[in-house]
Specification:
With 84 residues, the chain is an all-beta fold. It contains no helices and 6 strands.
């Protein structure tokens, strides 16, 4: 399960929380509105549990970003807004 980031809108940092019901290989990435990857926050095997990952966007321009959580064959995406 991928939660909505908090706070949203944010400046310059936000927290992304996700819940894993089973041990999984997890990839958490952030993309800009052009679909370009701007950050890879997590890439590895994680145990069952709830995880929170901080995202610092202080070097990025204002705009809408998409973050994706990939676990096995599942891909979940949500939007977040950076306002400077």
């Amino acid at each position: 399960e991928l939660m909505q980031n908090y706070p949203n809108p944010f400046n310059p940092a936000t927290t992304i929380t996700f819940i894993l019901p089973e041990k999984s290989n997890v990839i958490l990435k952030v993309f800009n509105s052009l679909g370009e990857e701007v950050a890879e926050l997590v890439n590895g095997n994680l145990d069952v549990g709830t995880y929170s990952q901080n995202f610092d966007a202080s070097k990025l321009p204002s705009g809408i970003y998409v973050y994706t959580l990939q676990t096995g064959d599942q891909l979940i995406s949500k939007k977040m807004t950076l306002i400077k």
